[in-house]
Task: inverse folding
């Protein structure tokens, strides 16, 4: 029997006996449960699952992601989701406007533009559908896009968004973190650069406990260089991907 | 003179000192270094990612693509001419077939997983080192797989059966030599790679495979430890 919260390697026996049930990242062989992914083993009652710690993003239903328009078709837009499978944004999921047949779709989204969207469906062939209908889902304007490991996203957001709002407040920027590891940052150049540096720091030191305090200290030391206080109006517009 | 004592003082069933490290290439989705004696293999994994041209896509399962490349001054003799050659293509193919049975590629329809194996330094046993590095890199890339694949070469020098021949033993000219690279799935005890250069008797082969199995399981423990070491910090 494996210990709770231990790093496991593919092929490792997690438990023997039929009293346990295999969940994501595990499989049953005879009466043993084996890992088929590298990650942290979690035992939840009778169920054993693995939380992956590395690798590319894999699309999941209800994930809020940041996607980029790569193609325009008859009925909508094809967007890149930062993984092997691009997603489809259909016209009715993109806008509530009435779009006439044959209308120029680039008016709404042009190739290369980014958006915060939510995955509505993933099929067995990994065909992905996304929507822009929902709170906080929208087209993204100018700003910077950076890529982080999708497994570090919960750490970057923090508990109830504590970490990301810390960065936003100290750097005077607007930040959106997608579950697919794409981060959008907008603000003054100095603030943007500090925000990126901080996110990279979180990514590198994600294993340290009490990281929030460390980041707070770092931001307080450096944010003096970033001028301007954020006004309340802009603050209310801020948003982020869910954890 | 009969080969009864190994030139580097190893026991017959010992492999050379092994060093394994995961996450050596930052930009890759997964990467690993596997060093056995003087043979060094670096493996990087990219993907699963979109596969182009489209006619290569398989809607039933993802495609595994392996490349094997010996760097120009990696060998002991002449400079290895860069670029794919017959030998490199063959080794890439057998590596692919050695890794394929453990990968759950049905999770990645129409996509591709690229494995690139580079050898900066070789002293025999390079395809086995490549497979060891590749299976660690695949696990590091978060690919769903049933097991890891450790590999080692076994063989015969004269009448002696031994594990992990180095170049001196492989090129030993006073007696005949057989070199048998094997790869193993530890959880099922199945071999996924079995090639032979030279000849052995039925009994010798059986003995060699048993020794290989034992050595592979020891290598498997080293691979496991290397993966755990990289992520030990993520536990908290």
Result:
């Amino acid at each position: 029997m494996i210990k709770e919260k231990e790093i496991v390697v593919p092929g490792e026996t997690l438990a023997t006996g039929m009293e346990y049930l295999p969940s994501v990242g595990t499989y049953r062989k005879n009466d043993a449960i084996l890992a088929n992914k590298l990650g942290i083993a979690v035992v939840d009652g009778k169920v054993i699952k693995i939380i992956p710690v590395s690798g590319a993003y894999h699309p999941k239903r209800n994930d809020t992601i940041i996607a980029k328009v790569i193609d325009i078709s008859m009925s909508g837009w094809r967007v890149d989701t930062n993984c092997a499978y691009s997603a489809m944004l259909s016209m009715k999921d993109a806008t509530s406007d009435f779009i006439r047949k044959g209308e120029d779709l680039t008016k709404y989204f042009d190739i290369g533009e980014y958006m915060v969207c939510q995955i509505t469906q993933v099929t067995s062939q990994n065909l992905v559908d996304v929507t822009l209908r929902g709170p906080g889902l929208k087209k993204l304007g100018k700003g910077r896009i950076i890529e982080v490991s999708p497994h570090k996203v919960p750490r970057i957001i923090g508990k109830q968004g504590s970490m990301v709002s810390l960065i936003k407040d100290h750097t005077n920027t607007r930040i959106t973190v997608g579950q697919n590891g794409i981060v959008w940052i907008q603000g003054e150049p100095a603030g943007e650069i500090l925000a990126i540096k901080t996110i990279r720091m979180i990514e590198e030191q994600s294993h340290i406990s009490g990281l929030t305090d460390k980041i707070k200290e770092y931001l307080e030391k450096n944010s003096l260089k970033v001028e301007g206080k954020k006004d309340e109006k802009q603050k209310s517009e801020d948003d982020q991907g869910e954890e | 003179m009969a080969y009864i004592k190994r030139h580097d003082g190893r026991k017959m069933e010992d492999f050379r000192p092994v060093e394994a490290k995961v996450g050596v290439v930052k930009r890759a989705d997964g990467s690993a270094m596997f060093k056995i004696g003087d043979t060094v293999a670096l493996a990087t994994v990219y993907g699963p990612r979109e596969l182009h041209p489209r006619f290569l896509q398989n809607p039933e399962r993802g495609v595994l693509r392996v490349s094997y490349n010996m760097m120009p001054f990696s060998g002991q003799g002449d400079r290895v001419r860069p670029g794919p050659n017959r030998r490199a293509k063959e080794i890439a193919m057998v590596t692919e077939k050695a890794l394929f049975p453990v990968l759950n590629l049905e999770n990645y329809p129409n996509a591709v997983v690229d494995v690139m194996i580079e050898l900066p330094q070789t002293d025999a046993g390079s395809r086995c080192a490549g497979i060891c590095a590749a299976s660690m890199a695949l696990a590091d890339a978060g690919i769903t797989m049933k097991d890891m694949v450790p590999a080692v070469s076994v063989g015969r020098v004269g009448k002696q059966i031994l594990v992990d021949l180095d170049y001196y033993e492989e090129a030993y000219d006073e007696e005949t030599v057989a070199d048998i690279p094997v790869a193993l799935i530890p959880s099922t005890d199945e071999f996924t790679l079995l090639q032979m250069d030279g000849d052995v008797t039925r009994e010798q082969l059986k003995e060699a495979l048993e020794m290989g199995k034992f050595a592979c399981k020891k290598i498997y423990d080293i691979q496991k430890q290397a993966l755990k070491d990289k992520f030990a910090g993520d536990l908290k």
Summary: The domain at 144-237 of chain A is CATH 3.30.1370.10 (Ribosomal Protein S8; Chain: A, domain 1). The longest strand of chain A covers residues 64-72. The CA atoms of residues 127 and 179 of chain A lie 18 Å apart. Chain A touches chain B through 33 residues (CB under 8 Å).
